[in-house]
Specification:
The protein is mainly alpha-helical and about 325 residues long. The chain has eleven helices and six strands. The chain has two domains: about 130 residues, no CATH class; about 160 residues, no CATH class. Strand 1 and strand 2 form a beta hairpin. Helix 6 packs across helix 8. The protein is flat and about 80 Å long.
């Protein structure tokens, strides 16, 4: 019996088992959470250690990957087992994705559970890419470990001239500076991704209902057009939320965007949305709700790439030392 306050009610044993036993969806979510936060980062870390070119990290990663795992009378290394597990997960995720896609495509668009089917497609696609990522990092770690053990991948014995701390500090500062500069174009890229994810799909859906509400203003709308204008207003607010979310996550990007708005005399907020609906019809607002300057977007992609490459080049220079003469194999 389970006691709640002053009352009690009996619970059958089977019901108690169902209460304590997690659902298959919960188990699946837990497994993939463990995979994301343990398997993938561990494989990536071991790969980075083996590819670092430093003797101590390479030796430590090789020892970890050499950990023996015994199954009956067979013994395998940790790297081989994890690579096989990720390969199996990739194959099963691919099959599940294909099945979910088939179910979603065969089902009528008017089915009440159509959204659930496409959510399943998304989840299985996500699982496939996660398992492929795990397969990649563990396969690289396993192969690098084999090369290291066979002395084909080792730290060369060379004469080096160490960089001074001042030079390393300068390179670090330059790398951080380029990262901060990259924050400006990445902020706009992030904003456009939010538009494409949360605004554009809803816009396309509303455009199919816009014919009967052409030229209708929000203030004079009613009936079906009233509901239509209400949804357009909500979509405009979603666009504003996308702007604020992107700016809140980017320090320099926020200041650059606000400076750009000030130069155009634009003030983001509820008042701007209200003014927009006073001047334009609901359909006109809908058509421009995800509008963005494509030339600026392309320039931001280019500048983000250049800034990130520059940042990592400077960070690589922090760890790099000048070599003298020729390398001698151990």
């Amino acid at each position: 019996r389970i006691q709640f306050g002053s009352g009690a009610w009996p619970l059958a044993p089977t019901s108690l088992v169902q209460l304590l036993r997690p659902s298959p969806e919960a188990v699946s979510a837990m497994v993939w959470s463990i995979f994301v936060y343990t398997v993938v980062p561990t494989g990536a870390l071991l790969s980075a250690m083996l590819l670092s070119g430093k003797s101590l990290p390479m030796w430590a990663a090789s020892k970890v990957l050499s950990t023996p795992l015994t199954f009956h009378n067979l013994q395998y290394s940790l790297g081989a087992v994890m690579t096989a597990v990720c390969l199996a997960l990739s194959y099963m995720s691919y099959l599940s994705l294909r099945r979910c896609e088939w179910r979603a495509e065969e089902t009528s668009d008017t089915a009440p559970y159509q959204d659930q089917l496409w959510r399943d497609v998304f989840r299985q696609g996500r699982n496939l890419y996660l398992s492929l990522l795990g397969l990649t990092v563990w396969a690289v770690a396993w192969r690098a470990k084999v090369l290291y053990d066979s002395e084909q991948l080792h730290y060369p014995m060379v004469h080096v001239r160490r960089r001074s701390l001042l030079v390393r500090f300068v390179y670090t500062a330059l790398g951080l500076g380029f990262l901060l500069l990259a924050d400006i174009p990445i902020c706009r890229i992030n904003y456009n991704l939010h538009l494409a994810t949360f605004v554009t799909p809803k816009k396309q859906s509303l455009l199919t209902q816009s014919r009967t509400c052409e030229g209708i203003m929000l203030s004079s709308s009613g009936g079906m057009c009233g509901e239509f204008c209400k949804e357009v207003r909500q979509l405009s607010e979603e666009r504003h939320n996308s702007i604020m979310f992107a700016r809140n996550w980017h320090v320099l990007g926020r200041y650059a965007a606000e400076l750009f708005d000030d130069s155009r005399g634009v003030q983001q907020g509820a008042e701007r949305i209200k003014t927009l609906f006073e001047k334009k019809s609901c359909v006109e607002v809908l058509r421009s709700v995800d509008r963005s300057n494509q030339m600026v977007n392309y320039l931001c992609i280019v500048f983000a790439g250049i800034s990130l490459l520059g940042a990592f080049s400077f960070f690589a220079s922090v760890l790099h030392d000048h070599t003298k003469g020729h390398a001698h194999a151990e």
